[in-house]
Design goal:
The protein has 15 helices and 24 strands. The protein is of the alpha/beta class. The chain has a domain at 3-228: ATPase, nucleotide binding domain (Nucleotidyltransferase, domain 5), CATH 3.30.420. A hairpin with a 4-residue loop joins strand 10 and strand 11 (185-186). The termini are far apart. Residues 4-224 form the Carbohydrate kinase FGGY N-terminal domain. Keywords: Carbohydrate metabolism, Kinase, Transferase, Xylose metabolism. Residues 241-426 form the Carbohydrate kinase FGGY C-terminal domain.
């Protein structure tokens, strides 16, 4: 078929992979950091273009026929009526809109009204909350804002030469707070509610549609957000879930329909293939391991893992509820962590180490059960993050999750997903691929772990955790 490229513009860098369009084999790669502080709440979008240009030097894109763009999510690029930047882009890690998000939730009539309208309750990171913050804090800039884009939308528009048509995709749109994955339509009234007036919103393209073609004949696909691109790069399908182990955690699964959740625990995203990606977040994951390591005077998580494996399932009765920074799932924003089951025989470093791993994974299983309780099937779990390589995580996860666990080898999955989308759009444009299914690229190289005989033991550990959680926080997940 030819050669395609996937571009991932994250918070701190741009990665580009050039792939064979038929097989997905990586032919070349490029990388460049973004200028400035990657943790900054405001960014000049031009830095994304400069990084893109630097990553693509040395003839990296020679022979490429189509490009897909993935970018950081929840960013807001406000433009005036002429397409000029009103102010620096507000990016996803900007937390200044927390009060604005709470105001919005009440303005529409509460959490349930938002969940039914757009599949999620406003959060500080979402563009809809950033628009409210802009209206309240910088009213002159808000008044000048006539067009609202996200980072991947803006990059696609720039690559195409800033045409009159502005586009996005359903994956990125589903994170805005003013587009519904269930109805496939914008809610312009919510933009007006947040910003104070109407604004032009980009056209939402289907998964296999092209955003356009450059004057040189290079096809640019719809693009998408990083989460959706990574799911496409991993080759996720129905029955697959992703557990992400960062300082905080998340559980995301592929599902056939959007889920409205008035509790706010589920955020209903769309994916880049026509399916849906309901996500449940936890406030605590690896931070519980790091805190335990500090308590025990252990220098690394590898050492903590080795220590944990000296203990036995159930950690001699010790249970750690890892709600160190409050918790989002269940909704316990003002809670603290709890260590239960202390007896003389359990007061050993290896038992506390194991309780930390079991507590982290049981909390993520709670999040997974929120999805399962809504009819989401989970047969296979992809485990992502550096902590996924820890032996204690790999030993415990399959039995606690009750599913096969896949640990993919490290790779630029968002960039690979963007490239796969580009190959799909190119094939559809040429009539060689169906718009109903992406190209069948080889799946991610991975380690596969099975629960086997440990499943019953894992379920006993899980029951011990749930009993403790219900004793300390009765009814945290409702009846």
């Amino acid at each position: 078929m030819g050669i395609v490229a996937g571009l991932d513009s994250s918070a701190g860098f741009t990665r580009i992979v050039v792939c064979d369009a038929d097989t997905g084999a990586v032919l070349r790669q490029g990388y460049a950091p973004h200028q400035g502080d990657p943790k900054a709440a405001e960014v000049d979008p031009q830095t994304w273009l400069l990084s893109l240009g630097e990553a693509a030097t040395g003839g990296l894109l020679e022979g490429v026929q189509a490009i897909g763009v993935s970018a950081q999510q929840h960013g807001l690029v406000p433009l005036d009526a002429q397409g000029a930047l009103v102010r620096p882009a507000l990016v996803g890690n900007d937390k200044r809109a927390q009060v604005a998000a709470a105001d919005l939730a009440e303005s529409l009539g509460g959490r349930q009204a938002w969940a039914e309208a757009v599949g999620c309750v406003p959060g500080s990171g979402q563009p809809v909350a950033k628009l409210r913050w802009l209206a309240r804090t910088e009213p002159e800039n808000a008044q000048r804002t006539a067009l609202v884009l996200q980072p991947h939308d803006w990059l696609v528009w720039q690559l195409l030469g800033r045409p009159a048509r502005r586009t996005t995709d359903r994956g990125a749109a589903s994170g805005t707070g003013y587009w519904s994955a269930r109805t496939g339509a914008y809610r312009p009234d919510l933009v007006e509610l947040a910003l104070g007036h109407q604004a032009v919103l980009p056209e939402v393209l289907g998964p296999a549609e092209a955003a356009g073609t450059t004057p040189e004949g290079l096809l640019i696909s719809a693009g998408t957000g990083e989460t959706m691109a990574a799911a496409l790069g991993l080759g996720l399908g129905h029955g697959d879930a992703v557990v992400s182990l960062g300082a905080s955690g998340s559980v995301m699964a592929v599902h056939h329909e959007a889920l409205a959740d008035p509790s706010g625990m589920i955020t209903s995203f769309a994916d880049a293939t026509g399916m849906h990606l309901p996500v449940v977040h936890t406030s605590n994951a690896v931070r519980a391991l790091r805190g335990t390591a500090e308590m025990l005077g252990v220098e690394s998580l590898d050492e903590l893992s080795a220590l944990a494996l000296k203990s036995t399932p159930g950690a001699s009765g010790l249970v750690l509820l890892p709600y160190l920074e409050g918790e989002r799932t269940p909704s316990l924003p003002h809670s603290a962590g709890t260590l239960s089951g202390l007896r003389r025989e359990s007061m050993k470093p290896e038992h506390l180490a194991r309780a930390a791993f079991e507590g982290m994974l049981c909390a993520l299983t709670d999040a997974m059960d929120v999805l399962r309780g809504r009819g989401v099937e989970v047969r296979r779990v992809f485990l992502l993050g550096a902590a996924a390589a820890l032996p204690a995580v790999q030993a415990l996860a399959p039995a606690l999750f009750g599913a096969q666990v896949v640990v993919p080898q490290p790779a630029d999955y968002a960039a690979l997903g963007a490239a796969r989308q580009a190959a799909w759009a190119l094939g559809v444009a040429r009539g060689t691929l169906s718009p109903s299914a992406p190209p069948a690229w080889q799946g991610a190289a991975a380690q596969v772990l099975e629960a086997g005989e440990e499943l019953a033991v894992g379920q006993a550990v899980r029951q011990q955790y749930v009993a403790t959680r219900e004793q300390i926080h009765p009814g945290a997940f409702g009846a």
